[in-house]
Amino acid sequence: MKKFMRRIGVLSLIFLVATLLSFLINDLPSLQKKAKQNQNRVIDELFVRIDESDVTKYKRQVLDPFTEIDLQGNNMEVWIEKGEKCQLVSSNKKILDNLTVKEGKIYLDAGKKMTRLHIIHPNPRSLFLNGRIGNGSLEVTQSLKKAEIDIGNGGCTIRGEASFPLSCSVGNGNISLNIDRLDAKVMASVDVGSIEIFKEEHEGVGLHKITKTFGGSRDFINLTVGNGEIEVE
Fold first, then answer.
1. Do residues 167 and 187 touch, judged by C-beta distance below 8 A?
2. What is the DSSP letter of 98?
3. Nearest to 132 by CA among 106, 102, 108, 113
4. Residues in contact with 229: Cβ distance below 8 Å, sequence separation at least 6, in sequence order
5. Number of H helices, E strands in the chain
6. Helices in 65-202 by DSSP H: which ranges?
7. Would you say 226 and 191 are in contact if contact means Cβ atoms under 8 Å apart?
8. Which residues contact 83 (CB under 8 A, 6 or more apart)?
9. CA–CA gap between residue 62 and residue 170 (Å, rounded)
10. If DSSP codes are grouped into helix, strand and coil, which group holds residue 150?
11. DSSP H helical segments within the chain, as ranges?
12. 187 CB contacts (<8 Å, ≥6 apart)?
């Protein structure tokens, strides 16, 4: 009798898990759509009050050469791009007023204020970025030396001419990676959503540690999204 009851219990558990998985898989398109809508809503609500056209309100600061940035903020849009001088351009003047520079490393803390920040560097390939953003986005337009990025809600776009060591995590939103010359082991994980690596698509629930190697796997790239999408092209 005890064995029979144990078997009934196991079968009931299997049925419950199968039912739950079936529900999640069938409802995947709506979950993906909702995650995308939430990401867009967060960004729209955060930055609607900042007028991009009025650049006179932005503060620009030219700096001595730096090779490392430690960046954090609750509500931010960040761009990293190549330019002639090391400069920071921000809609939040306080972030530059409170700027700390120590031994080639810059510490930036935007706090809770909505902030748009441009980081301009003559040699991005020498730059190590450590970024933590609560809500918003980060866009890198050149290859860096190394990057560790954590975004709660929003998106991360990485472009460059060559791969570099990268760890990027987004809670709700998307990650887009576009590198001309990939020489790396790429590992991608999504709890609910989709992964596309050079047109090879994976869609569903619990897509963990999908791995592809390119070239000699010189670099390690780890991409993680809770709810949303990862695209490598």
1. no
2. T
3. 108
4. 32, 36, 174, 175, 190, 193, 194, 195, 196
5. 3, 12
6. 93-97
7. yes
8. 120, 121, 122
9. 31
10. strand
11. 2-26, 28-47, 93-97
12. 209, 210, 211, 220, 221, 222, 223
Lowest mean pLDDT across 102-111, 122-131, 181-190: 102-111
Question: What is the structure's pLDDT at 213?
Answer: 95
CATH of domain 55-232: 2.160.20
pTM recorded for the entire structure: 0.78
- How are beta strands 128-140 and 146-162 bridged, if at all? parallel
User: How far apart (Å, rounded) are the C-alpha atoms in residues 58 and 214?
Assistant: 41
Residue type, 193: G
CB 172 within 8 A of CB 38: yes
Q: Are the CB atoms for 25 and 207 separated by under 8 Å? A: no
Task: Read off the pLDDT of residues 21-67 as tens digits, 9 standing for 90 and up.
Answer: 454 445 555 555 555 555 455 444 444 444 444 555 688 888 888 99
Which two structure tokens, joined as six digits, stand for 185? 């082991």
pLDDT of res. 99: 82
Domain boundaries defined on the chain? 55-232
Distance (Å, rounded) from C-alpha 172 to C-alpha 175? Answer: 10
